[in-house]
């Protein structure tokens, strides 16, 4: 599983970073970005929760 953040939709709420800090980080501008690698199996559930909880629906599975 890989995840992607739509930088046009992200508004920097940081919910994804709170739920899954091993996958998401914030840019210098305060917007989310995801690691560009396949996620380890143990992080997939947290990544799915971040996708579901994003207030802007800016995160999707690649």
UniProtKB/TrEMBL annotation:
Cofactor(s) needed by this chain: [3Fe-4S] cluster
Keywords: 3Fe-4S, Electron transport, Iron, Iron-sulfur, Metal-binding, Transport
Domain of life (superkingdom): Bacteria
All copies of domain 4Fe-4S ferredoxin-type, residue ranges: 1-29
The UniProt record lists the keyword Ribosomal protein: no
PROSITE patterns: 4FE4S_FER_2 (PS51379)
Family annotation (InterPro entries): 3Fe4S_ferredoxin, 4Fe4S_Fe-S-bd, Fe-S_cluster_ET
A Pfam family annotated for this UniProt entry: Fer4_15
A GO MF label: 3 iron, 4 sulfur cluster binding
Entry function: Ferredoxins are iron-sulfur proteins that transfer electrons in a wide variety of metabolic reactions.
Protein's UniProt name: Ferredoxin
Biological source species: Mycobacterium sherrisii
């Amino acid at each position: 599983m890989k995840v992607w953040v739509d930088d046009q939709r992200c508004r920097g709420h940081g919910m994804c970073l709170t739920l899954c800090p091993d996958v998401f980080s914030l840019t210098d501008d305060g917007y989310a970005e995801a690691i560009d690698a396949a996620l380890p199996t143990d992080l997939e559930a947290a990544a799915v929760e971040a996708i579901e909880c994003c207030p802007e629906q800016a995160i999707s599975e690649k």
